[in-house]
Amino acid sequence: MEVHCEGCAGCCLDWRALAPDDFDHGHERRGRYRPLDDVDNLVPLSCDEVRAFLAAGHADAMVARLFRIEDGPSVTVGGVDVAAVRGRPAFLVGLAKVPKPVAPFDSDPQWLPSCVFLDPETLQCRIHGEEAYPQTCSTYPGDNLALDAETECERVERAHGGDRLVDDDPPADSDPVIGPGAVGSRVFVHPDADRIEDAVGRLATGEATRADHAEFVAVAAASSPGTLAVNDDRYEQAHERALDADSWVDGAIAEWSERAASDESADPETAATVEEGRGAPATPGWE
């Protein structure tokens, strides 16, 4: 597998606003499971990765995703029918996207939902190669290739041309985590539907709060692979840590959101102030 990533970051962005009018970009909204949120290219995290981000103070970098489901096990929570495992709401935890001034695919800079760790100027990941770098990102698009599923690289090629997927042979260590083995590892279940009624309603309307996401993040951190069990003590510790988190991520999310809402001109170079000025790691750039 070989990919050409310079000037792209298609897998780190929700770039539907840059797609041609007739471009089919609904790959995450096909099949039985339909996300409650409307953001593309979520990076799902494992329970160990959730704990690592919590330990680093990056709770705000994580968001919950629940699903509507057609013809499958579900439970009604807060007036919304969501996918369930043994009657309990099922969910993923992934990396948040925030509006950032980016210019992928040789476009003019504009505000697009971008991974919280993406440097808008270099279009590189600020935590690439670090211990917290998610496995989903480090192996992408290997799992897609192993499953014979279209990759984001190929979607970018179809929409904008170029050669992004240079070699489509999946790596030997590709091992997509799907099916029952994902429960408690990447697919989590909430033990108390009543406790999340209001949160699910807000997730469905795009109005989820930090506290809403913190609830799901804490449950994921307290989960155990292969089981539906949630450790109460670990949950309490994780929940407190999620609500008290304070890092460069928190301030950057707030400022990017404020700048985008005010229709400020999109300038990728402002990342030096908004992110690096708060302590975000720099990226190496492209040789």
Report on the architecture of this protein.
With 287 residues, this protein is an alpha+beta fold. It has one domain (2-271). The chain has 9 helices and 12 strands. The strands form 4 sheets. Strands 2, 3, 4, 5, 6 and 12 form a 6-stranded antiparallel beta sheet that branches. Strands 1-11 form a two-stranded antiparallel sheet. A hairpin with a 4-residue loop joins strand 9 and strand 10 (124-125). Helix 6 (210-221) packs antiparallel against helix 7. The chain is globular, with a radius of gyration of 19 Å. The protein starts with a strand and ends in a 13-residue tail after the last helix.
Tell me the total number of β-strands.
12
Global structural class:
alpha+beta
Mean model confidence by pLDDT: 91
Number of helices: 9
Distance between the amino and carboxyl termini: 21 Å
Domains (count): 1
Instruction: Give the overall silhouette.
Output: globular
- The helix content is 25-40%
Low-pLDDT sequence parts: none
- Largest β sheet strand count, sense and barrel closure: 6 strands, antiparallel
Strand fraction band? 15-25%
Rg:
19 Å
Task: Please provide the ordered H/E string of secondary-structure elements.
Answer: EEHEEEEEEEEHHHEEHHHHH
Brief summary of the model shown:
By secondary structure, the chain is α+β, with helices and mostly antiparallel strands. The chain has nine helices and twelve strands. Residues 258-287 are annotated as: Disordered.
Layout: helices, strands, pairs:
Blueprint: E1 2-3, E2 33-35, H1 47-55, E3 62-69, E4 74-77, E5 80-85, E6 88-95, E7 97-102, E8 110-115, E9 118-119, E10 124-125, H2 135-139, H3 142-146, H4 152-160, E11 165-167, E12 188-189, H5 197-204, H6 210-221, H7 232-244, H8 248-261, H9 271-274
Antiparallel strand pairs: 1-11, 2-3, 3-6, 4-5, 5-6, 6-12, 7-8, 9-10
